[in-house]
Amino acid sequence: MNTPGPQETIELALTAARGDATVVIVESGVDRYLRWADSTLVAAGDADEYRLSVVSVVGGRVGAVSVSGRVGRAEIVDAVDGAEAVARQAPPAPDARPLPEPGAASPCWDDPVRPPAPGVLAGLVEQLSTGFARAARHGQVLHGYAEHGSRTTFLGTSAGARLRHDGSAGHLELTARDGRGAPVWTSAVTDDFTDVSVAGLQDDLDRRLRWERRRVDLPPGRYECLVPPSAVADMMNYAYTTAGAAAAAQGRTAYSRAGGRTRIGETIAGIPLTLRSDPTAEGLRCAPFLVATASSGARSVFDNGLALGPTRWWEQGRLRSLVHTRHSAEELGMPLTPLVENLILEGPPGGGAEADLVARTRRGLLLTSLWYIREVDLATMALTGVTRDGVYLVEDGEVVGAVHNFRFNDSPLAMVMRATEVGRTVPTRARDWGDAVAHVAMPMLRVPDFPLTAATGAV
Amino acid sequence: MTTPAPAVEPGFDTLPVDDLADAALRQAHRAGATYADVRLRRVRALRERVRDGRPESSQESVETGVGVRVLVDGTWGFAAGVELSPRGVGALAARACALARTVRPLRGEPVRLTAEPVPAPVDWQSPFEVDPFEVPTAERTALLAGWCGLLRDGGAHLAEAYLQVFRESTVYHDSEGRRIRQRRTWLHPMVFGFRIDAGDGTFEAMRTLGPPAARGWEYLTGTGWDWAGELARMPELLAEKAAAPRIEPGRYDLVIDPTNLWLTIHETVGHATELDRMRGREAAFAGSSFVRPQDVGVLRYGSPQMTVVADRTTPHALATVGYDDDGVAAGSWPLVTEGLLVGVQHDRQTAGAAGLDRSTGCAYAESYRHLPVPRMPNVSLCPAPDGPDTDELIGRVRDGLYVVGDNSFSIDMARVNFQFTAQRFHRIRNGRLVGQVRDIAYTGTTLDFWRSLEAVGGPQTWLLSGAGQCGKAQPLQIAAAGHGCPSALFRAVPVTDTRTGATG
């Protein structure tokens, strides 16, 4: 039996719906990946995903169900009936309101889903094969991972919205170890892997392995640190995903102020940093409309289809917006700034390349990435974690050796308050919490007193 | 434990699984596979959040699909999809074989799987009394709202209840003749209370200690944990915590409650003894281990009071199954005996690569879309047969802390340097609890920590807990593992102040 396509699925579901309002979301995608360790392939996979989500509203009560797998006509009707049955039993939803008035339908709504080229990673096999051989000649082994995912999201609502977003994203991480044992790491983000050069990444790794030849022991303490874009992304992803306005106004986040107020308007960074989102940002494109298969603190199912535009969360070092649903914006009387699924941190124009920041460092530590980051204190947003795959001692503008790893304890907000220099913003991916906000562009930050609270020999 | 009726999965239980699996295995064989397995899996989940008695979010989800894993010329290939027809799964098998050929240049040594017994066809199901998916929405939400009410009535300013329920149904067939069907159900309720000082804008939070459990709805209504009793006590404990003093950082004797110690076991023993990590196969992501394969039988991991067992058989534990995702029967084996490292954990391919004869049965894939990888079984610290109760352990401490409930946790890539916080730290003076202290983390390194273990409590202090959301591998996979442990006394553990960062 032929199962209906995404667009037909949405029409069938909306036709079957008996509730006061209905949202239907279909997500269709393919993920492909390669993984290697010790210059040997350890996994190769290719996985399809197809998911139908239905949100039904009956008398201001919500039911949300999601069915993944091939769904035929009967299952579509079952999903709608199931969502309505849940809604009828649910208590009233505090954020209930009419769905957003639809704008124009997406122009490509009717187009079929374009699967990515099956060989999107095939070119990488030859590059990796060459790379493994090059590594072997230099007494190294390579570890790493390459992933490409493509997703098409269709959103239809009983209010008339017909919106679609086609997205794809890939990334590659490469770790090298030589006989000395301390690994080095680099990464690349890409849409389609046509612009990824394994040899280029290996050049970077070779440079880092040369830095590792001189080992330096340093005690824990506060050090001037150059925090690279991937590590900044980990810190900023946390700052962004906890930036709900409603929770802040309730007094239970680091964005709270006494008396049910928030820190909006306060200076949040010691230098004029801007933290923003923009669904149309080149290389970081994400859905220009809100998609919520279920509500959360930062997203309401009643906002499905809401148009998303450029949003400034911090402007020139000042906190300007927190993440709102229409409900929280109305309740708190604040401008509506919904969650957008990309994030850009930038300083004033003219920020230097990473090498420029290194060259301007009299004595400090150049970090590579952060790992195992966990929240320690909700009230201050204090996090702990460890440095990973390269802590390099910089003296008089040059890397002079490599240090062991450290545990750090710092808050993203406290860190940017103390930052003294910001580099050029580049596309990157958080190493630890990359899935939290997949599309990010971040700069290197100079933090004069980054708290490294314990040393560890772990690699 | 009684199971009135096995849980049913309409639309899954009626799938023509034999035809589907045969189609995949036949196609894999035709396409040159020397080994193939096919895994049909449905994951049913329910996630609900109630804030201050009002529903914030609720979603029921069902994910159904099939993954086909093949070995062609000693190289893995894997393809997964949602087309549950003989033609659809046959196409996946062909895709998996084509992928294996594409990536053959990167292979290295051919994959070797340990030889394992082939059981007769089996059907296994985890026990529960009341199917949580059959509980009416209104009853479920009312219970969570009532829990929020208990905290608010007791003086908490905000309360939030969160419930996750999972059911995983699997049909596994492989080219060596295994035919396994299994189903397990587990859930985790959590309730958070907040105390907010409107005057100065400061706040403090506390979470229930009730662990996740492979049980049914009965777990929320009194079987296995006293939720109402815990929620009734929490507001006062939260108020005490908010007003608690800080302490001088330094070394303190710790009596660690099982509600906190389970996570330390997970991080410092569970992950460290995963053989794939020890062999560097996770070195670029989840990390490696300070434990080397040659340390087994030699390494003094902890004091003689430390005995740790691994198993996938403990009733109601999160990693308990009938068979793993390689089709290997669940078992039980020692990891640390009286302080000595004696065992590790692995799956067929990791054990095969290490030259071992048998797998410990730890393969697991999060969903149909994921490749099986070695995952932690239940890893538990044994109590002392006639050991002391928690009060007696506290009685042995002159100046220390009683550590209750897991909270923040972080450990380095090799599982050496860690930092853990707790829901509550109670000050111990001269063998008695004298009130809470706050903003504390205990830190240290794995071997120093376990070698400082002076005593473990008796069976009366033992509690089964577990991690519901443990991440590993790329693409990242989530798995659940159970951890049981008694209360335990550790001497002179480094304690830091999380507000000032001071380490003493």
From TrEMBL, chain A:
Pfam assignment, any one: PmbA_TldD_3rd
Gene3D superfamilies registered for this protein in UniProt: PmbA/TldD superfamily (3.30.2290.10)
Domain Metalloprotease TldD/E C-terminal: 220-450
Tree of life domain: Bacteria
Family matches, as PANTHER family: CONSERVED PROTEIN (PTHR43666:SF1), TLDD PROTEIN (PTHR43666)
Alphabetized SUPFAM superfamilies for the sequence: Putative modulator of DNA gyrase, PmbA/TldD
GO molecular function annotation: metallopeptidase activity
Source organism of the structure: Micromonospora sediminimaris
Alphabetized InterPro entries for the sequence: Metalloprtase-TldD/E_C, TldD/PmbA_N, TldD/PmbA_sf
Chain coiled-coil ranges: none
Record protein name field: Peptidase
Signal peptide span: none
GO terms of biological process kind: proteolysis
TrEMBL record, chain B:
Residues passing through the membrane, by range: none
This protein's UniProt keywords: Hydrolase, Metalloprotease, Protease
Pfam families for the chain: PmbA_TldD_1st, PmbA_TldD_3rd
Segments forming domain Metalloprotease TldD/E N-terminal: 36-100
GO biological process, one term: proteolysis
Top-level taxon: Bacteria
Record's GO cellular component terms: cytosol
Domain Metalloprotease TldD/E C-terminal: 249-495
GO molecular function, one term: metallopeptidase activity
SUPFAM superfamilies: Putative modulator of DNA gyrase, PmbA/TldD
PANTHER family: CONSERVED PROTEIN, UNCHARACTERIZED PROTEIN TLDD AND PMBA
Protein family per UniProt: Belongs to the peptidase U62 family.
This protein's name: Modulator of DNA gyrase
Organism from which the protein derives: Micromonospora sediminimaris
